[in-house]
Amino acid sequence: MDAREMKVKAAAAALAHVEDGMKLGIGTGSTAEEFVRLLAEKVHAGLRVQGVPTSERTARLCLELGVSLKSLDELPELDLTIDGADELDGNLSLIKGGGGALLREKIVAAASERVIVIADESKLVETLGAFPLPIEINPFGQMATRVAIEKAAARLGLGGSLSMRKTGDELFTTDGGHYIVDASFGRIPDAEALSAELHSIPGVVEHGLFIHMASLAIIAGPAGARTLQAK
Ligand SMILES: O=C[C@H](O)[C@H](O)[C@H](O)COP(=O)(O)O
Question: Binding of substrate: at which residues (predicted)?
């Protein structure tokens, strides 16, 4: 089974949690897109959901496939969000933002009663940090914000390098008009402490550590999909 087939397996298992009439947060990324494709088939077969997308990219795919959408302002409280992750650990702490959608994803997840993460088993790790942590920053004062991030990481004994995400020669810009710093800290032993340090920096808009947000993870491997519950 290749990586795409595993993503489809996880997405299909997540679809079983979607009930008629739900207000549904819809994630971003290649795994979430497999979910959107399967969801669209169900919608064409009669399932009624109101979807709130976590990115412009997801919104485009949903509209292309006929999944009707609302904004989070129209539906500020959601029943369930299904989203992917770049990494997850056994406590269902996540790193997200590899696709640059972390801010809207976190706002949508926080507005949801339940969050289900879907991933292939390559994303499951003992300790977060092999995947560089995406940190969304305000363009104003970006150098000062980067220095502050380095100092915050050093206070926690984390080293590593920061790089500004680019698209070609241009700095990558998020849906909210911000930049992304990819922080290669390496192993992150205390994600909550790092989260608090990063939130204390004014130029940091949000970071890609999602802690205590996911209630269930569906992990697909060659043998099929299994679930992990939040502890
Ligand atoms: O910003 C993007 C999101 O956080 C994605 O959920 C994450 O990057 C995982 O994407 P993929 O399913 O493509 O690995």
Answer: 28-31, 83-86, 96-99, 123
